[in-house]
Fold:
Amino acid sequence: MNAEQGFDLHPGAAQDLIEIWEFIGEDSPLAARRIREEILVAIRKLVRFPLQGHTRPDLTRQPLRFQTMRDYLIVYAPDHQPLVVIAVLHGRRSPRVIAGILRERD
Structure:
């Protein structure tokens, strides 16, 4: 998905975006579209500058990077061509939960 834009979404990341959109959309479909677009804009910026995110060795041993966008963490593999987004998660989730999700998405 979106390889023509320089990135692919892991199936779990695609599901994350759907769940974010559905959750926010319950209250405001307009806000849901806006947040989704802001996340996609942030991902497109990562394509141009993939090392701008930070690492989290406390969450994963994989060479993944994390970029914050509002309350969300975009987790991605910067060394892949196209760049692969592994997850888009709410930043207030427990670090243990985030680490578990990332292990499942190897």
User: Anything to note?
Assistant: The first strand starts at residue 7 and ends at 9. DSSP finds three helices and four strands in the chain.
